[in-house]
Every structure is written in C-alpha cells, then in structure tokens.
Specification:
The chain is α+β, with helices and mostly antiparallel strands and 335 residues long. The protein has a domain of 111 residues: 2-Layer Sandwich (Enolase-like, domain 1). It has twelve helices and eleven strands. A five-stranded antiparallel sheet has the order 4-5-8-6-7. A three-stranded parallel sheet has the order 1-3-2, with no helix packed on it. Strands 9-10-11 form a three-stranded antiparallel sheet, with helices on both faces. A hairpin with a 5-residue loop joins strand 6 and strand 7. The longest helix has 27 residues. The protein binds iron/sulfur cluster. The site of iron/sulfur cluster has 15 residues, from loops. Iron/sulfur cluster binds next to loops.
Length: 335
C-alpha cells in the first residue's frame, strides 16, 4: 500500500473542500477501497475520513418517503422497521449482498460507489481500460463469465456489482450531494451512472470532491416485492443475474404495476421502463413475457463465457412474473 495523507472532516462541505484532486478519496466503511489500496488499484494521495459526520439518520419525508444518511450502514438500513415494512425490496437486496461483517461496515453512499469485480481490474500488471485508460480490455476475449451483456462498449464490459443500487434504481431513489463550495444537488439514481463507452474509468456523474450526503426514497410502491439473485454459491457471491421486482395485479389477474431492475447483466443497475410498460395491463401470459424478454435483451451482447446470461435472464424474468401472478391468484382466492 502506498503512503497517503489522512484528514478527518467535521462537516460535509469541509470534507468536500479537503478533496483537491481525483487522486484523493473519501473513506467511510472502506470495505472496497481498502482492498483497492492494498492492490494499488487506487492510490489516493489523501484520504478524507467522513465517519464523524452526522449523516447516520433515517428520517421520514413530508411526501411519505425516507431520507437516508450516507453513513447509515447496510445492516442498519436493511433492518430499519420502515424499510422492512414499506421497502422490503431494498432490505432483501441489501441482505443478498456480501456478508454480515461487511454489511456492518459498508455504508449506503459507499455501496453506490463500489467498483466492478472484473478479474483484470484487480490485476495491476494486466491491461485494463478502466484502471489505465487506453491500455486495452483483455476481458472481452478472456475471463468474462461474470461480466455484463448490456450497456457494454468495445472498451469495457465490466458489470456493476451492487445489489442495493439495483433496488434503489427500481425505487426511483434520488442521491443528494454537496460540493466544496457548499452547493448541493439532487441526482436521480437513473442519471447517476455513466455508460462505459470509450471512457470506462468515468463511472458516475460525481465531480471531484462531490460528496454523497443522503439518498431519498419516494413514497412506497404497493405490490409484491421480490429480489432474486442467481449466483454461483448461496452467499458471499456477486450476482450472475439478479432481478428486483415490484408487481401488483387486479382481481382479474391483469398486471397493474410492473417495476423491474436487474443486476449482474449491466454495466450499471439495469432498468428498462419500456419493458415494464409492455407488461403492464396484460395478464402476463407466456407470449407477453417472451416479448418483454426480447425487448429487454434486444441489444444484449455476450462475449463468450457470459453468453449464458441472456438465456438465464429470460428464465428469471419469466419466473418473477409467473410467481407474482400465482401469488396474487392464491391471495385473492383466500380473501
Ligand atoms: Fe478493465 Fe472493464 Fe475490460 Fe474489465 S471489462 S478488463 S474492468 S476495461
């Protein structure tokens, strides 16, 4: 690990103004950053410790949502009574990720910013356009079983690793930030991530020194909340394909609400509102699901080892819709 300066911030804009270049970094839980520093993938000149900032609260908002401080740990967010009662999809997605020990340290803001687990990204002696722009992407013709099939480019096919961010994308969460000059902005999660194109080292719209302070959830969505995660082992594994879903039906079995977001397949948490619109108002029959899958995966591109993700995503979509319909039918019969 390379030497670095360390400062502890006592206010959000003080933290922002302490970051002088893209080589400086905030640190909170450090669950990804410390690994990156040990491998010298990230070599910050200065670390700005934000753990003493008063950003650990979860508050109700006037419009019926929640405002979550960036330092709320993943464990505390997943276990919060309001989250369990009204945003179960968020709780389930968080609990599907990492391990209890990591969730106890990892923070809400940091979870959005975790880096890909592409094998080559973690090999300092390997080319990698994300780590060293212009050096190449050995994953495209190499070890790519876990990597993305949507949103990729000729420069990078790295998948986004977060489970929490998939649920946040589905819930239409908004990220609040502060900059060094004290100005703030609100960024919908839908606009937060940047596709790799020919600059895969740029992953979000955050500016140098811009600090995530809160995440705001709108009012809850009615329906069955599910988070399915297909992975190589039952715990402590990243998603091959995951699907966050909120689905509701009327008494006739027509789908009245369909929201779907996917992990493991995209270079960012993946949501396609046209797919949701196609399914809404239908009875979710096999033909409609097949059309929805065609629409979702029309631009999917496998790179060899990860080709299976296309068929796997189709099957997962079918399972999610069929199970929600069956659940509504059985609850209506019992009513
Ligand atoms: Fe690097 Fe992206 Fe290629 Fe992986 S997929 S080697 S992160 S450029």
């Amino acid at each position: 690990m390379k030497r670095f300066d360390y400062v502890r911030a006592s206010a959000p804009n003080e933290a922002s103004s302490a970051i002088n270049s893209k080589n400086d970094s905030f640190i909170a839980g450090g669950t990804n950053l410390l690994d990156l520093m040990k491998f010298e993938i990230e070599t910050p000149i200065k670390l700005v410790d934000i753990t003493r900032l008063e950003l650990e609260q979860i508050e109700s908002t006037e419009d019926g949502g929640l405002r979550i401080g960036t330092l709320v740990t993943n464990s505390d967010l997943a276990a919060h009574p309001e989250v369990i009662a009204h945003y179960p999809i968020l709780s389930r997605a968080i609990l599907a990720g990492a391990t209890g020990q990591l969730r106890n340290k990892a923070t809400t803001g940091g979870n959005f910013l975790q880096r890909t687990r592409c094998y080559y990204f973690y090999q300092p002696d390997s080319p990698c356009n994300k780590r060293k722009p212009g050096s190449g992407c050995p994953a495209i013709n190499g070890e790519n079983r876990s990597l993305a099939i949507l949103g990729t480019s000729d420069s990078c096919i790295a998948q986004h690793p977060s489970d929490m961010a998939v649920a946040m994308r589905l819930l239409d969460a908004t990220i609040e930030t502060v900059k060094a000059d004290g100005s703030t902005r609100q960024i919908p999660v839908a606009d937060f991530y940047v596709l790799p194109k020919d600059t895969p080292h740029i992953e979000t719209v955050l500016e140098v020194g811009e600090l995530i302070t809160h995440v705001v959830l709108p009012a809850p969505i009615k329906g069955i909340h599910t988070y399915d995660k297909v992975r190589d082992r039952a715990s402590y594994a990243f998603a091959l394909v995951s699907c966050a879903a909120v689905i509701n039906s009327d008494d006739n079995g027509q789908l009245t609400t369909v929201r779907l977001a996917f992990g493991g397949i995209g270079t960012q948490p993946w949501r396609n509102e046209a797919v949701e619109a196609l399914l809404t108002g239908t009875d979710g029959n096999a033909d409609v699901i097949a059309q929805a899958a065609d629409l979702l995966l029309g631009e999917a591109k496998g790179s060899g080892q990860n080709n299976f993700k296309i068929a796997l995503t189709r099957r997962l979509l079918k399972q999610v819709i069929n199970r929600a319909q069956a659940s509504h039918l059985s609850s209506n019969k019992g009513a």
